Amino acid sequence: MTDWLVMVVVTTTSVGLALTLGIYGTVVLDRVIGRSIAGEPLRLTRALVGPFQHAALLLLQQRSDTERSDSATWAVAPALLGALAAAALAVVPLTPAVALEVSSGIVYFGATMAMVMVAVFLNGWSANSTFPLIGGYRFVAQALSFEMPLVLVLIAAALPAESLNVADIVRSQDTLWNVVRQPLGLPLYLIAALGVSFLGPLGLPDGIDLAGGTVAELSGTALLLWRAAQAAVLVAVSAMGAAVFLGGWLGPWLPGSVWMALKTLLLIALMVVAKHLFGRVRLERFVVVSWVVLIPVALVHVFLSGILALRRIGS
Amino acid sequence: MVMRDAVAEGLRRLLIPLACRAPVRVFALAGVNSPTNIDDLRLRDDICLVDSPRSANVLWVAGLLPAPLQDSARRVHAMMSHPRATVWSRPSVMTAEHATLFPHATIVGPSEDLFEALRTVQRALLTKRHASDEALLPDEEPAPWRGVGPYGQGGTGMTGGVPYGRPMAERAPDRDGLELDQLPMRIGPFFPPFPSGLILDVRLQGDVVQEVTIAESLFAQGNVLSSGESQGDLLRDPFRRALTEPVPVGELELARARHHLRWLAHALRVHGLEALGRRVLMFVPALEPGKAGDILALRRLLDRIRTFDWSTAGVGILERQQLSGRGLGPVARAAGLSDDSRLVDPAYDKLGFEPLVHNDGDCRARWRQRLGEVIQSLALARAGAQPAGGAGSVESPRGVLRPETGPTPALLTLLPGLVRGMEWGDAVTTIVSLDLDVREARAASPVETPTSGKPAVERDE
User: Are the CB atoms for A274 and A201 separated by under 8 Å?
Assistant: First the structure.
């Protein structure tokens, strides 16, 4: 009982801390990378303090309402999205000491990320407004096209470890990281991760062509919470990417937690760069490309990984 | 309850100093005759232009709003959350009708610092030295609900049409022949991706545009630039001056290059490339004749990125026969036509001017055309003081401009047929690519039935 309680406390604390720092880091990276691409002076102090100023301003802003909105589900949507991010991050081993040993961690992670669709759709639908509704539908329309490759590359990464436990997958990379062992895995995963976190090229639900889409009717605390939850999802998928493809806590000289944080930040930075450099794609074209290219490639990737894993076991 | 209020007030006091240093959240309403361009706000660290009035603290009214837009402006104001305030860049001409439009607005004169005014107003709002704007419209439902139950779910007349003044989904065949719901919606006149004043009545099936009509209301009263309101804009626009007097080629071509770059920045932003859009805007004030190094580098960058190409290629194709002889400038030239009134201007003839053309006629060809024309204009601008124009019409960045009209009315006639059958994102891309200015539109012109142009859905097949 005591062990169970300690595990809950440690996991909750570490996930909470990781998400808080991760969300802050994401916002700072977004500002720094955005200004760098725009060719504007960096102004690091402003980048570091800016997130707090923005948050304070939104906290002082009244929460808006629309005619005949479903206020209960509208309020639940950001909480659900944030909770899904936290639940997903809980199975990612942040350090060797804080590794929640879940035997089917990869499957559980895939399931929580699939539920993101519910949160985004709720946020769009509840406002009883056209643009948010279309934004919600857009996410549903594109979700299957990136969730299939996401799950397939995660399964492929589990094959060399012969385990669905994420900590085991990290340990299996002791001699060779999966990013080298399975070169197709990380690029496919990053594309899917952009979709899950509805960012950049796959940020169609919140597109400017919908005046902000699912967030078009949000203001004040609701907008702040939604943006924080979206960043939390980005942190969760990046942390999982770091664990599954970049060896997680493995690395010389520095403590395991520092390696994990650096690798997660690297993946967040890559996706933020993608956000600023790759404009939104056309939904129809993305779906076609996904079913014609990404999913078949992900399937071939799984088969190859399986054959290699069997050969290794046989030898 | 008292304890909770005390905690909330304590928290508020803690947040105010931080919030006062945050960028001002502004939603902009573009009118006419504004001394400040909306794009100028995008390059400011202390201003955050938002895409929806919901999350704005300050409504910035840029210039005068013509009468047909004023009711919509009040509706935008009503959408803003408290605390909210209005800052109005005061026009040179102020009629009694305009004076009562935003009675609580902070007026900023042409010589005053708009940015300081925006910062001051937000700080005053947060510290409660400036009262939050009261509602300008009554807080009542546009049509009283008469159905049964809290959501009218038991009412009658719920199977389509406009029961109790509310448009409901109606069934209609989609592009695959299936009977699906159609959602009617009105977009504009302050929809950020579109030019101010453009109002579209759209019927959507999912994300697909089934029908578009251009609302008549704005144009029924004639040109929204009445003579008194337009004077400031006229003086600032060298192309309008060139209608009646010779203007140096250098000035015209630099203005053309600036216009195209502002358009490109907007197009990039609409595609989610906000940072790249700001990069383009930074080039605008620094343009110099003959120096196109930065622009060439920008073109190489956009070529390398590819996704801007992918999302515009094959979208919004206009055929040559739809555009020929209508003075549609870069839109026509992007479809392979060499329509350009500079060809008959002796000043340009002396410079050996030849129009640049692209052949595809789609959105990608249009942005490539405009970027190419920026580089061409910088080369032409080296002619400096050589006078051009003054013959009653001039090749403006949008096409042939005449005293009474411009290319926009002709483009508006093509628009409904062009975007029908497109996904909404592609429709927005297409409309942005046309670079419309509804101030050029005259009564009756924009609502003509399109006479040519296949629906986009047929081309997709």
Answer: yes
Which amino acid appears at position B68 of this protein? P
Contact A183, A115 (CB under 8 A): no
Which has the closest alpha carbon to B433: B457, B414, B461, B454?
A: B414
- For residue A50, the chain B residue with the least C-alpha distance is B22
Whole-number average pLDDT of chain B: 83
What residues of chain B, 253 to 292, have a C-beta less than 8 Å from chain A?
268-276, 278-279, 282
CA A296 to chain B, closest CA, distance in angstroms equals 21
What the block records as the tokens of B371 is 């970027």
Q: State how far the Cα of A226 lies from the Cα of A229, in Å rounded to an integer.
A: 5
d(CA B264, CA B438): 19
- A28-60 in b/e form (b: 16+ CB < 10 A) is bbbbbbbbebbeeeeeeebbeebbbbbbbbbbb
Q: Is B83 on the interface with A (CB under 8 A)?
A: yes
Q: How far apart are CA B14 and CA A52, in angstroms?
A: 12
Hey, of A52, A53, A60, A71, which one would you mutate to test binding to chain B, going by the most B CBs within 10 A of its CB?
A: A60
- Chain A hits for B45, CB-CB cut-off 8 Å, are 43, 46
Give the pLDDT mean for A85-90. Answer: 94
Domains parsed from chain B with CATH numbers: 11-126 (3.40.50.12280), 168-218 (no CATH), 227-460 (1.10.645.10)
A274 touches chain B (CB under 8 A): no
| B151 chain-A contacts, CB cut-off 8 A | 68
CA–CA min distance B439, chain A (Å):
22
Per residue in A217-273, pLDDT (tens digit) is 999 999 999 999 999 999 999 999 999 999 998 889 999 889 999 999 999 999 999
The shortest C-alpha distance from B211 to chain A (Å) reads: 16
Decide: helix, strand or coil at residue B186: strand
When CB atoms are compared, the residue of B57, B185, B191 closest to A61 is: B57
Contact present, A127 and A133 (Cβ < 8 Å): yes
Write the pLDDT tens digit of every residue in B327-377: 899 999 999 999 999 999 999 988 889 999 999 999 999 999 999 999 999
Query: Among A39, A49, A58, whose Cβ lies nearest the Cβ of B279?
Result: A39
Predicted ipTM of the assembly = 0.92
